[in-house]
Automatic annotation (TrEMBL):
Keywords: Carboxypeptidase, Hydrolase, Metal-binding, Protease. GO terms for molecular function: carboxypeptidase activity. CDD domains: M20_CPDG2 (cd03885). It comes from Sutcliffiella tianshenii. Its EC number is 3.4.17.11. It comes from the Bacteria. InterPro entries: Bact_exopeptidase_dim_dom (IPR036264), Pept_M20_glutamate_carboxypep (IPR017150), Peptidase_M20 (IPR002933), Peptidase_M20_dimer (IPR011650), Peptidase_M20A (IPR050072). It is an enzyme of class 3 (hydrolase). This is Glutamate carboxypeptidase. The keyword Metal-binding applies. Residues 178-278 form the Peptidase M20 dimerisation domain. It holds the Pfam family Peptidase_M20.
Length: 378
C-alpha cells in the first residue's frame, strides 16, 4: 500500500494545490461549494454515492457512502471551510519549500480531504471491502462552530461504533483523545448618547455598562479547574466626545468537564440578567455549543487499536489533549468512540505560516486506511 501511495504522491499534491488555491473561508459559500464540487466528482468517479445537503448562507455539506454499504460502523468527519478571508489564496498561493507545503488551509484541513479520498482509493485498490463500512461527512462550517452541520453530524453518528475526525495531527504526530468544551456569546448593550462636554449627565454609557460585565465575566476563569473566559472582541461608541449609546463584546468560553457546562451557562446568564448602569439595556446571545471531548474507556480502546495498526507499520502512535474545539466533541458526547487528529502532520494553522509536512501525507493515509480496515473487522 505504501508503494502505491508513494506513486500517487504527485497526484495528491496537485489536488491539494488546486484546493488550497481556492478561497473557502466559512463565509465564502461559493468557494466552499467549489471545493465540494471537486470532491464530489472524485468520490463519484470511484463509485461512491454523494448526497449534497444544500445550505443558503454557508457552503453545502456532503454525505458520502458506497452504494454497497450496509449500516457502516465508522463515521469519518472532515470540514471543507477555512478561517481565511477572500483574496488570501491569491496573496499567498500554494507552494512547496523543502519538505513542506504552504498555503491557506493546507493543513487545516485540505490535506486531510486528500487523505480521506486516497485512503478510500487505497482500500479499493487492495480489494478491502472496508470502504463499504464507512460513512463520510464533509461539512462546510466547522471553523465557526458548525451551526448548520452539528445536527447533521449528530444524526449520522446515531448507531455508529467509531468516529475518526480528520483535524490535523499535532506537530509531533500525536492524535487527539480529549478536547476542551467551547461556548460563544455575544453581549449587546444599548445606552443613551449625549455630548460628553455639554450635557454628560443626560447620557447613559453603554461602554461603562459593558466594562462592568467584562470584569465579572473574566472573574469566572478558574485555570485550576480548566475553565477560561475570554472577552476577545469589543466595540462601541461613535466619537471620543460622545457618551456611547452602543457597545458589543464577543466572549469565548472553554471548559474541561461536561458537568461545568450548565453552571457556566447559568452564571453568564445571571451576570447579564441586570444592568449596573441605570438606563442601559443588555442583550445576551449564545450558548455552550461544544461539550468537552473527554478521554474515556471507549476512546482508549479505539486508541489501542490505532496504536496496533501503527506498530504493524513501524509507526509509534501517541495521543494528547488540546484546548481547541472540533466536531469530535459532538460524536464523543453521543457516546461514540472518537479519535481526532487523524489527519497529516503540520502546524501553525490559522496563520500565514501554516504548513503540511509532506512526508507525513503518505504515512497518515496509510494509517487511516489500515485503521478503517481494522475497524471493519471488529
Amino acid at each position: 500500500m505504501r508503494q502505491y501511495l508513494m506513486e500517487k504522491q504527485n497526484e495528491m499534491l496537485e489536488l491539494l494545490e488546486r484546493m488550497v488555491n481556492i478561497d473557502s473561508g466559512s463565509y465564502i459559500k461559493e468557494g466552499v461549494d467549489e471545493i465540494g464540487a471537486i470532491l464530489m466528482k472524485e468520490y463519484r468517479d470511484m463509485g461512491f454515492a454523494v448526497q449534497e445537503v444544500k445550505q443558503e448562507e454557508y457552503g453545502n455539506h456532503l454525505i458520502i457512502q458506497h452504494p454497497l454499504a450496509k449500516n457502516p460502523k465508522t463515521l469519518i468527519i472532515a470540514h471543507m471551510d477555512t478561517v481565511f478571508p477572500e483574496g488570501t489564496a491569491e496573496k499567498r498561493p500554494f507552494h512547496i519549500k523543502d519538505n513542506r507545503a504552504y498555503g491557506p488551509g493546507v493543513i487545516d484541513m485540505k490535506a486531510s480531504q486528500v487523505a480521506v479520498l486516497y485512503a478510500m482509493k487505497a482500500l479499493i485498490k487492495f480489494h478491502s471491502k472496508a470502504y463499504q463500512d464507512v460513512l463520510i461527512v464533509l461539512n462546510s462550517d466547522e471553523e465557526i462552530g458548525s451551526p448548520t452541520s452539528k445536527g447533521l453530524i449528530e444524526n449520522k453518528a446515531e448507531g455508529k461504533k467509531y468516529a475518526l475526525v480528520m483535524e490535523p495531527a499535532r506537530k509531533d504526530g500525536s492524535v487527539v483523545t480529549s478536547r476542551r468544551g467551547k461556548g460563544h456569546y455575544t453581549i449587546s448593550v444599548k445606552g443613551r448618547a449625549a455630548h460628553s462636554g455639554i450635557e454628560p449627565e443626560k447620557g447613559r454609557s453603554a461602554i461603562e455598562e459593558l466594562a462592568y460585565k467584562i470584569i465579572r465575566l473574566h472573574d469566572l476563569t478558574d485555570h485550576e479547574k480548566g475553565i477560561s473566559v475570554n472577552v476577545g472582541l469589543i466595540e462601541g461608541g461613535s466619537s471620543v466626545n460622545t457618551v456611547s449609546d452602543t457597545a458589543m463584546a464577543e466572549v469565548d468560553i472553554r471548559i474541561s468537564e461536561r458537568e461545568q457546562a450548565k453552571p457556566m451557562e447559568e452564571k453568564i446568564e445571571s451576570i447579564c440578567a441586570s444592568t449596573d448602569v441605570k438606563g442601559t439595556e443588555i442583550h445576551l446571545e449564545g450558548k455552550m455549543n461544544r461539550l468537552p471531548m473527554e478521554k474515556n474507556a471507549q476512546t482508549t480502546s479505539l486508541l489501542h487499536m490505532i496504536e496496533d495498526v501503527g506498530v504493524e507499520m513501524g509507526l509509534k502512535v501517541k495521543d494528547t489533549a488540546t484546548g481547541g474545539g472540533s466536531d469530535a466533541s459532538f460524536t464523543a458526547a453521543m457516546g461514540v468512540a472518537t479519535i481526532d487528529g487523524m489527519g497529516p502532520v503540520g502546524g501553525n494553522a490559522h496563520s500565514e505560516a501554516e504548513y503540511l509536512e509532506i512526508p507525513s501525507l503518505i504515512e497518515r493515509i496509510e494509517l487511516l486506511a489500515k485503521t478503517i480496515n481494522k475497524l471493519s473487522e471488529e
